[in-house]
Amino acid sequence: MASDELQPNDLEEGTSVRLKWSPRGGRGAGSTAEGDVTRVWRPDDDVQEFTVERDDDAINVYTDYRNPVVERVEGGLDGDEEPNTETVGRLDSITRA
Q1: Cβ atoms within 10 Å of 81's Cβ, excluding its own
Q2: What is the rounded distance in angstroms from the CA atom of residue 49 to the CA atom of residue 61?
């Protein structure tokens, strides 16, 4: 593991991060996103979910899986309606932005 790589348990709200993930199904190029952590859900000692807000959308990461799931939330989390979401891949790394 690179020394600048973070683990989900290192995250706090307000931290600026860069996420890198492999595509869903394992084929094709991966993708990245930069933004600020706006929500960390830690029901016990370990982070199980966190959200990174970007300009035009948000990224939810569900860390309670062996290969954490990355989900894109179109339009972000603001608003009264249920947002459109899409699973886009599996988390590869988290680094400070």
Answers
A1: 6
A2: 6
pLDDT bracket for residue 10 (50, 70, 90) = very high
Beta strands in 42-80 (DSSP E): 49-53, 57-62, 69-74
Own/partner pairs for 31-36, CB < 8 Å, 24+ apart?
Answer: 31/88, 31/89, 33/59, 34/97, 35/59, 35/97
Supply the Cα-derived Rg of the chain in whole angstroms: 13
Residues 35, 57: Cα–Cα separation, whole Å:
10
Look up the pTM and report it: 0.88
The β-bridge relationship of strands 49-53 and 57-62 is: antiparallel
36 CB neighbour count, 10 Å cutoff: 14
